[in-house]
Amino acid sequence: METKKVTFKIRRFNPKKDEKPYYEDYTIDVPKGMTILEALQYIKDNIDPTLSFRAFCRSAICGSCSVKINGYPKLACKTQVFNELEIYNTDTLIIEPLDNMEVIRDLIVNWDSAFERMEKMNPYLIPDPEVVPETLDEESKVYPRELKKFDKFTDCILCTSCYSMCGIVRINSNYGGPFPFARVYRFAVDPRDSLKKERAKVGYAFDMWNCVRCNKCADVCPKHIAPVDGILKLRGLSIEVGLKDNPGARHVMAFYKSLLDSGMLNEVLLPLRAKGLKGVIENLSLGIKLILKGRAHSPFMKPIKEHETLLKVMKVAMEVE
Predict the structure, then answer these.
(1) How many Å apart are CA 10 and CA 8, to the nearest integer?
(2) What is the dihedral of CA 209, 214, 219, 224, to 10 degrees?
(3) Which of 32, 47, 52, 200 suits a disulfide with 106, CB 3.0-4.6 Å?
């Protein structure tokens, strides 16, 4: 069996005795097929019994073994050591705890902050009495076309990988976070839920418009859920229920109005429509530069030649969604 000598540079920290985190190297012979979790377990069993990490199911279901491998959150139980060596073209892997959460010890983080945010957002079904029977004698049916809207979001295993990569979570204590927002959207489009689109108000209250759509949450999700998709759709629902008094919502509506008016983005009116007079002042210097260079168009734009066709496409797209 093929083997390689691999060095695991593991971030260690015991708050009871360490002043600050440090890295410790462990070099072992790794057979092909060994996972990161198996390597950590080997180190604990044979080299250093004080090494601490979290793992339960070993089947990529519980999400508890998520750690950073060379800077990216991954499930240790499903990540092959050889694959990571090939990706980074190295014989050394850096293993660290997830970000945005307090480190309890070594690779174990405290999930409380993430789950407490989610708990405040009521991420569970609130039955609609007109849809969900009061007794267990009847079924509450969900048809395939209905399930398709939220099916992928039910695959979330709460590993907090997306949460650890979110920069907005790091700087905004009120921001709900990727997987909590995805969970809110999941119930907002569930036909059995009594709140339905009104759940968008929860996303609004927890600053979902602060998402910068960096897609890091989608990149690291081990179940390929892409929480950012849920956030964007939840934003759309918030506009539908009338929550438009927000720069982000007004920005979306400005784009939409431009397409309705002419089929092109009216960049001259965009700051005014999105942020009012404040937006004009903020973009005044840029606007003057564009005018002087002859790159600013008139705020009064004629419809493009294919405008009618575009409107039909937009209408069909909205009906499909």
Answers:
(1) 6
(2) 30
(3) 52
What pLDDT is recorded for position 320? 65
> Does residue 234 or residue 135 have the better pLDDT?
234
Residues 69 and 161 in one domain: no
Q: Measuring CA to CA, which residue among 18, 149, 10, 119 is closest to residue 68?
A: 10
Is residue 76 domain-shared with residue 145, that is, in the same domain? no
> Are 226 and 214 in the same domain?
yes
Of the pLDDT bands very low, low, confident and very high (cuts 50, 70, 90), residue 124 is very high
- What is the sign of the dihedral through the CA atoms of 261, 267, 268 and 272? positive
Would strands 92-96 and 3-12 be described as parallel, antiparallel, or unpaired?
parallel
The tokens 């991954």 sit on which residue? Answer: 74
CATH of the domain at 201: 1.10.1060.10
How far from 39 is each of 12, 187, 220, 247, 254, CA to CA, in Å?
A: 16, 39, 21, 48, 53
Give pTM, 2 decimals: 0.88
Structural domain count, the chain:
3
Residue 223 CA to residue 288 CA, distance in Å, equals 47
Bridge partners, residue 193, by sequence: 127
Identify the CATH number of the domain in which residue 82 sits: 3.10.20.30
